[in-house]
Amino acid sequence: MKRYESQITITAPAERVFGYVSDFSKHGEWSGHGLQVTKVGDGPVGVGTVYSTTAKQFGTQKEQSTITDIEPGKAFGWDSTGALGRVHHEFTLSQTGSSTTLTKSATFVEPSFLAKATGWKLSKDVPKSLDSDLAKIKATLESSSS
Which residue range forms the structural domain that includes residue 61? Predict the structure, then answer.
């Protein structure tokens, strides 16, 4: 299993940061490649809730994402299954004073043949993507008071 991780400090309380990153409908605001998110089914959001996602990177990429962990103010995780296999994504949060350290990780749990064959490219692209996502989250949360 290959794991990538990046972190950033955001001037906002952990509750607010968690509220933003755990709202799957907002992932398209900070994620790259024109990500579109659609909840599958009815009912409240919780562990086991499934989302269908579509992104534009090397053509159209469709994935199914399932929430695996919700710990308010501390952690939010999900598994995405698609062309790269099954990848576990996770945010962890730690508040110190009025700032929150937000860590985002991606672990290739069950990499597909494609992920294995392009591992050299993923090892460059995934860290850049994590950094970009975190920078956009920081900019959004520090520029708004909501």
Answer: 2-143
Distance CA 94, CA 99 (A): 8
C-alpha distances in Å from residue 143, one per residue of 11, 44, 100, 106: 10, 29, 15, 26
Q: What is the pLDDT of residues 61-70, one digit of tens each?
A: 889 999 999 9
Structural domain total, the chain: 1
The CATH code of the domain that includes 106 is 3.30.530.20
The amino acid occupying position 58 is F
The letter for the amino acid at 123 is S
Amino acid at 48: G
Per-residue pLDDT at 55: 82
Residue 21 has which token pair?
């990153």
Which letter does DSSP use for residue 47 in this model? T
- Of 67, 91, 77, residue with least CA distance to 10: 91
Residue 3 phi, psi (nearest 5)? -120, 135
CB 113 within 8 A of CB 137: no
Question: What ranges in the chain are assigned the alpha helix state H?
Answer: 14-21, 27-30, 113-117, 119-143
> Which pLDDT score, from 0 to 100, does residue 89 have?
97
The Cα 69–Cα 89 span in angstroms is: 10
